[in-house]
Specification:
- By secondary structure, the protein is an all-alpha fold.
- The chain folds into 2 domains: 36 residues; 107 residues, no CATH class.
- The chain has 7 helices and 2 strands.
- A two-stranded antiparallel sheet has the order 1-2.
- Helix 1 packs across helix 2.
Length: 175
């Protein structure tokens, strides 16, 4: 098998590019360490607060990190004020010392319906894996949705349709 000139030229360019990127990444921290550290310092505080709050609201301490990231991103994209609402809910929880979601939900349903809605959105997203309502609903988390967990040892999440789409919508045959 022979390599024609175009393939050889492409291989040389690809090697040069790999070498250039590699040398740049190796030398950059030496030349400009402050800029590298600043670029690496991404603020994960809102996402970490969401994780801590999710642990209380779901009663699960071992939530999947990728699911945390995806659900937080989806909830934030659907509701741009979500980060602030999550922080307010966390402040409310810490200010009143709640240790169970049942007590927290009962108090919020009576005192602050907006925060109660945020609580329900978080719990709903974790258990169903769906964010949003109606035609704007999006399945964000399928495999790690908490509703799957109780039966996971016997029944895995179904990844296929049992018949044609909307098969359940037609009337059954009369016997």
């Amino acid at each position: 098998m022979t390599i024609d000139r175009a393939d050889a030229a492409f291989a040389r360019v690809a090697r040069r590019r790999v070498m250039t990127v590699g040398v740049t990444l190796a030398v950059l921290p030496i030349i400009a360490p402050d800029q590298v550290l600043a670029a690496a310092a991404v603020d994960h505080a809102p996402e970490n607060a969401f994780l801590k709050l999710s642990r209380l609201l779901t009663g699960h301490s071992n939530l999947n990190p990728q699911a945390v990231e995806r659900l937080f991103g989806a909830l934030t994209s659907v509701n741009p004020a979500f980060t602030g609402q999550t922080a307010a809910l966390a402040d409310f929880v810490h200010g009143h010392g709640f240790s169970t979601v049942d007590t927290l939900a009962a108090v919020l349903d009576k005192q602050d319906t907006k925060l109660a809605r945020v609580l329900h959105e978080i719990v709903e997203a974790w258990y169903s894996g769906v964010v949003g309502d109606g035609p704007r609903a999006q399945v964000i988390e399928y495999r790690y949705a908490l509703m799957i967990e109780p039966v996971a040892d016997v029944v895995g999440p179904v990844s296929y349709c049992h018949a044609a789409p909307f098969y359940w919508a037609s009337k059954p045959p009369i016997a």
